[in-house]
Amino acid sequence: MNQSTSNKHQVLSHIVILLLCAVILFFSLLLDEEDGLLYLFGYKWPHRCPLYETVGIKCALCGLTRSFSSLAHGNWRQSIKFHALGPIIFAFTCFQIPYRIYGIIIHPRAINRRLIKINLSLAVAISILVLVNWFVYIGGLII
Asked: Where in the chain are the domains?
């Protein structure tokens, strides 16, 4: 892969992640949480966790949509009740927007290595926290 193709892939990945994060945050604002259920323009949100629906075990990200929606509406306490790491993941998602815009704007130059390391370190740390949180939940079911 030559340098030009690599740069195009980098910009494309920045655009895709930027749009994905923007859509997630936008829908977090559109969705309303009431009594643990989500509503979009007054209609019940039909999507539920397939693992929880079939086996009765929450996945590592169960409750994250409700957590994001609660945060988007300023309800921190409710957000943490839905997913303990919701505020951290929400903040990371918000951080991706200026980070990705910066990556697109400075193209074809590369993003500062320190900033790349910070972003990658945060992503890895959050992923580990999500898994640890889920293993603690699974461990509570076993014990």
From this structure: 3-142
